[in-house]
């Protein structure tokens, strides 16, 4: 059974993250399946835009610490979302953590409901938001990035919208997305592709400039002693040794 089922209606293909056993964490398998699904959407002329949704109470819990993807494969997935010649819209009604925020930040438009929460948890694991910085830092408020990267605090949809992490915070996420999807259906394929190229140019430049260095940094951090303690503590549901 696929972890990323697809459904199509009037030009919009919905890709649903459906891995409830690990809260839609970014396992090697989910990253590969989502990448394949996006490639199929890019080639299909009937697809005007992609809606990225999820099952359960978590949009994406970040990297699957038991079966993590190769950093290069994860970067390739993020870049494919940004470079896809069709808009990718995220529908969030649950929690988003760590690497899941990179996936969210790569999307062109995003809406989150009152049940959503967000946190950059990497610093609490002995890691850093390395590769996900490429789609995020060009779009995030710098002061907000400085705070939430460092502290790992949770914040809500209203704060996510204020800081540029998402586009819309709404009490009804489907109601908020209705005019967005209608607008995408009314736009021409060429108009969408060329308009997206304009708004993603800075993000793609970050990928072209920083990918190799940040993949190396991510691999180095994951292999470190502190990260081993942080990940072990997380899996054992205890505080890591450095907590004061």
UniProtKB/TrEMBL annotation:
Domain of life assignment = Bacteria
Q: Where is the signal peptide?
A: none
Q: Which Gene3D superfamilies match?
A: 2-enoyl-CoA Hydratase, Chain A, domain 1, Lyase 2-enoyl-coa Hydratase, Chain A, domain 2
Q: Which Pfam families does this entry report, sorted A to Z? A: ECH_1
What NCBIfam families does UniProt report for this protein, alphabetically?
PRK07827.1
Tell me the protein family, please: Belongs to the enoyl-CoA hydratase/isomerase family.
- What is the official name of this protein in its record? Enoyl-CoA hydratase family protein
């Amino acid at each position: 059974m696929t972890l990323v089922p697809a459904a199509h209606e009037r030009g919009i293909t919905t890709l649903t993250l459906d891995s409830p056993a690990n809260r839609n964490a970014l396992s090697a398998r989910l990253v590969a399946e989502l990448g394949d699904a996006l490639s199929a959407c890019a080639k299909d002329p009937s697809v005007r835009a992609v809606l990225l949704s999820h099952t359960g109470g978590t949009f994406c819990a970040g990297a699957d610490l038991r079966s993590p993807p190769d950093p290069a494969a994860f970067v390739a997935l993020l870049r494919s979302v940004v470079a896809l010649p069709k808009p990718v819209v995220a529908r969030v009604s649950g929690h988003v953590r760590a690497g899941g925020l990179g996936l969210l930040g790569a999307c062109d438009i995003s809406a989150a409901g009152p049940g959503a929460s967000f946190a950059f948890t990497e610093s609490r694991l002995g890691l850093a938001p390395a590769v996900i910085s490429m789609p995020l830092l060009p779009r995030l408020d710098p002061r907000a990035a400085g705070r939430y990267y460092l502290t790992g605090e949770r914040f809500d949809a209203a704060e996510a919208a204020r800081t540029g992490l998402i586009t819309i915070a709404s009490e009804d996420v489907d109601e908020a997305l209705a005019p967005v999807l209608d607008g995408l259906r009314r736009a021409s394929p060429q108009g969408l592709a060329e308009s997206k190229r304009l708004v993603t140019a800075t993000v793609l430049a970050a990928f072209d400039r920083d990918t190799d260095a940040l993949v190396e940094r991510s691999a180095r951090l994951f292999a470190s002693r502190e990260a081993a303690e942080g990940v072990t503590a997380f899996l054992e549901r205890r505080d890591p040794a450095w907590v004061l």
